[in-house]
Amino acid sequence: MAATAYLERASDGAYDGIAPDADWREEVLRLARERDAVILAHNYQLPEIQDIAHHTGDSLALSRIAAASEASTIIFCGVHFMAETAKILAPHKTVLIPDERAGCSLADSITADQLREWKSQHPGAVVVSYVNTTADVKAETDICCTSSNAVDVVASIPADREVLFLPDQFLGAHVKRETGRENLRIWAGECHVHAGINGPELAARAAENPDADLFIHPECGCATSALYLAGEGAVPAEQVKILSTGDMITAARGTSAKSVLVATEVGMLHQLRKAAPEIDFRPVNDRASCTYMKMITPTALLRCLRENLDEVHVDAETARRAQGAVQRMIEIGQPGGGE
Ligand code: SF4
């Protein structure tokens, strides 16, 4: 494949201009072999990125693969905090993200300074952070959690200790409801994509598809409404499943439903359809697409492999402190799935 100038998309500046054709595939895989690199892709990536990756999954599963892989370079096709988590767990490897501008509105909803200030108002509280946080915030955290084990992580903390839970208010509300814990304080952060999937939309889709299962990510603005609607009998409780993205794949393989409504980022549909092609998967909101995730374009991946860019760095002291919190997350409950 001839060297090409990388264009930038007018709408969002993402690297653009190279089509994901057979030449592109061949070149990407050749360069990955040459660089001793493993390509990891999150479930919300573009289908062509998911398809060329050596491994596709949720953020925690990918971080664990990054740490265990024998490859010396990790190409993390996801958003920046995920690549940072891989670097924290695999500090001696080179970690590259195809576009370092791929951020996350949820991770950006709290800074390390804000967390230090919150901690100073609640001395003695245990800090539990969802994995969607920056390395600086993880370094100020006692235990990280995923959406799969958030309830177990909070339940593992002595009942009389105050807990600061961040940054996602919807996941926090889910944990508070499940644990019945009054001394859980919740940071008012949210992901703009998940918050956009709301209760009225879910109720309307459920009414149109009365026999469908509902797979709902607990970060969704509709998670609370889904449980409320189930309680009211508007949506049958046995059809509502609150699942991390990793657990959605397992549930797709196990369900007898012919159709499933999916409440999370639309990239997830690609893996679900591959896992269970006989099921009709439909998004609750087909506009729920994360622009940050979609910055990892075929052009960006090729640029990354050709030019060894963008490298992810976490300073040694931050990584050491953050690693303790991430390690405790891996040890508690069911560590199968992050976002
Ligand atoms: S979907 Fe939301 S939580 Fe996930 S990466 Fe995008 S902005 Fe962050």
Automatic annotation (TrEMBL):
GO terms for biological process: 'de novo' NAD+ biosynthetic process from L-aspartate. Pathway: Cofactor biosynthesis; NAD(+) biosynthesis; quinolinate from iminoaspartate: step 1/1. Its cofactor is [4Fe-4S] cluster. GO terms for cellular component: cytosol. It is an enzyme of class 2 (transferase). One of its GO terms (molecular function) is quinolinate synthetase A activity. Pfam families: NadA. Its EC number is 2.5.1.72. Keywords: 4Fe-4S, Cytoplasm, Iron, Iron-sulfur, Metal-binding, Pyridine nucleotide biosynthesis, Transferase. Signal peptide: none annotated. NCBIfam families: nadA, PRK09375.1-2, PRK09375.1-4. This is Quinolinate synthase. It comes from Actinosynnema pretiosum.
